[in-house]
Amino acid sequence: MNKINPGVAIVTGASSGIGHATANALQSAGFRVFGTSRRAIAGKSDGVTMLTCDVTDDTSVSQLVDDVLAETGRIDLLVNNAGMGLFGAAEESSTVQAQALFDVNVFGVFRMTNAVLPTMRRQNEGRIVNVSSVQGFIPAPYFALYASTKHAIEGYSESLDHEVRPFGIRVALVEPAYTRTSFEESLATPDQLLDIYNSSRAGMKAAVRKAMEKGDTPEVVAKTVLAAATDPDPKRRYTAGKTARQVSFLRRFVPASAFDKSLRKQLGLPV
User: Which PANTHER family does the record cross-reference, listed alphabetically (predicted)?
Assistant: First the structure.
């Protein structure tokens, strides 16, 4: 992978939102891009070859990687973007629902990563960029299970980076804040709603909607993914957008009690 020919990239969840913007940004930067979607999208879109892949299915993931290798012979970059959200109090979701969430957001990343690592090791180079969230390093009331998946990806990515670095492979995290996508509309609903949370849940939903309206565009996140993908000396974390940078700074330097109070105030929760 070099500036003249960046190489071959796979972007999961590329049919819309951050994934779509990322695939386009990489293609414009010279990558040959294969985007994935769970449902079939035929042919090419803006120069991006779209393929079907269900990241919760081992066979589907293996077939995707085999198809890309059969056409290109190499994989230089994997952007793990596919994911789903879940909004509700932690105890409102069954274990089965929580497992389904982790199967996409965490084990989907594991499957994709394990599928490309042998090729990247043979090449003695490669880059893996995992799209996380500021909710991967701060508390997220009413997004507890979703935030748990992102916390898991943060720990996994940092640890994996140390393991694969001797093979010329680097792993980086991109951490957006609120982004103007269809994320809010596609949030899963808990499978056992409890009346005791109705008022707080409704208030939190209103706060999220307001924040989403002022959020960054997917292109802002895509620009950060491109930086993480091409940085010759990659950092392990890249915050995407002004809000994400502010939250990261405050989390590191503001006393825990003050951060906790500010968080609850901003989310409309009793302080």
Answer: SHORT CHAIN DEHYDROGENASE, SHORT-CHAIN DEHYDROGENASE_REDUCTASE FAMILY PROTEIN
